[in-house]
Amino acid sequence: MSVEVRIDAKGKYYTDKVTTQTLEVVAVTRTGTIRGMIHIHPGHRLSDELNSERLFIALTDATVPGPNGEELRVEFVAVNKSQLVWVVPVEAIGHPEEEAP
After folding, report:
1. Which CATH number does the domain 18-90 belong to among 2.60.40.2150, 2.30.30.100, 3.40.50.2300, 3.30.450.40?
2. What is this structure's pTM?
3. Quick one: three-class SS letters along the chain?
4. Per-residue pLDDT at 20
């Protein structure tokens, strides 16, 4: 599959596909906990994505709280950033039982 590249009069590149890095995160909202993959633009950090002017963050392959307390598996969810309490990469979560005394 080839990616078409277009260049406008000012020299800006446009492609059909945006390359991103995926990062598995746990996001706690005002109503529950979401675990999924956030897509970070090249050269950006998680904090850059969270501090962008966009009102929502997109998570894919996510587990979200359902209306009756059950966990639902969804391919995509857009989360309003005003509802976030905290977000942490899964790789940064420590497990006390695995740590040396």
Report:
1. 2.30.30.100
2. 0.73
3. CCCCEEECCCCCEEECCCCCEEEEEEEEECCCEEEEEEEECCCCCHHHHHCCCCCEEEEEEEEEECCCCCEEEEEEEEEEHHHEEEEEEHHHCCCHHHCCC
4. 86
